[in-house]
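User: Show me a protein chain along with its predicted structure.
Assistant: Here is one chain, sequence first, then structure tokens.
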Amino acid sequence: MTSESQPMEGDSATGFSGGCACGAVRYEIAAQPVRAFQCQCKDCQRDTGGGHASVLVFPRAALQIAGPVREISRQADSGARKTKGFCVNCGAPLYNKPEEKPEFIGIYVGSLDDASGFRPEIVLFCSRGYAWDRLDPDLPKRPEWHSKPQK
């Protein structure tokens, strides 16, 4: 993959860093993302309080996290179970861990210290999106998780 097709690049020496809104939770990721997407499923809407979540997927083993995180497990729109991580103090959403893919973790892009280079590759669950949630019209869109992209 060339740097032009990378979903986002962190600092080559340190990778990525981020945390919650109050500063009680901090994390570092010593890897480049394997996937970048925006998701309009109801589960992501509830997690973010908006019309979608912006997510970078990393190898789970690359994440080092410090601070008080509360995890809850629930069923996503896809039917799969995910464990969601939130700061216990401020409630900021930090990550989701898909139970069916334990080697990966989805980091909510808004929790990164610098999200300016985020480049989503696709919009998932666009069938559940709202007209007021305006995303890049040039991105491929899938009405569900594993459906064919829409133009």
